[in-house]
Specification:
27% of the residues lie in helices and 38% in strands. The protein has 5 helices and 8 strands; from the N terminus they run ββαααβββαβαββ.
Length: 184
């Protein structure tokens, strides 16, 4: 694991006054990540790209390299325990000189915390990190039917660049994706 980037920690307050710590993911987060992902609604899981298994979550946390993928989690203190309620990442293209100016973004907010401003706060935080790293472009793939996410990305400054037809398969059918990007 590369050095923990403490400079990427940030505390935000949601519309309902909930305090959320945004911080880089740690290897010790595997259990909390699994709790979050396994308790998502079927709709949210579909937008995540299918049926995630505990083994995959464990792999994410075991192989953290902040220089290749920067995973940020949204953490709240709930009695009696701490809980991850959102995950986001920036995937960098370090080994490809022609693509080092950009990153791919992804985000998932737990159903219990949607429509509270967490998605926008976390997206803005990730975009600030991208700008500090000198990136010129951040891209996200989002299902064309995911209207809530599309609106949120547009509010954060993303624009639709392309439509990818039949880009992902779930629930027995194919779905189209938008490629949305923001430029700095």
């Amino acid at each position: 694991m590369s050095n923990y980037p403490k400079e990427h920690e940030k505390i935000v307050m949601l519309r309902d006054r909930t305090i959320v710590l945004l911080r880089p993911e740690l290897p010790s987060d595997a259990g909390m990540l699994w709790e979050m992902v396994s308790s998502l609604s079927n709709e949210s899981r579909r937008f995540l790209g299918g049926n995630l298994k505990r083994k995959k979550i464990d792999g994410w946390t075991r192989r953290i390299n902040y220089d290749l993928v920067l995973p940020i989690v949204g953490v709240i203190e709930e009695q009696p325990k701490t809980r991850i309620v959102a995950i986001a990442s920036l995937r960098f293209f370090k080994g490809f000189p022609a693509f080092q100016h950009k990153a791919e973004f992804g985000i998932t907010v737990h159903d219990d915390f949607q429509r509270k401003g967490l998605g926008a706060e976390l997206t803005k935080h990730m975009l600030e990190i991208a700008q500090k790293r000198g990136l010129k472009k951040v891209t996200v793939h989002v299902g064309t039917e995911n209207k809530k996410a599309v609106r949120m990305y547009e509010k954060c400054g993303f624009k639709i660049e392309a439509i990818l037809e039949k880009e992902h398969f779930a629930d027995g059918k194919y779905y189209d994706n938008y490629v949305m990007s923001i430029f700095f």
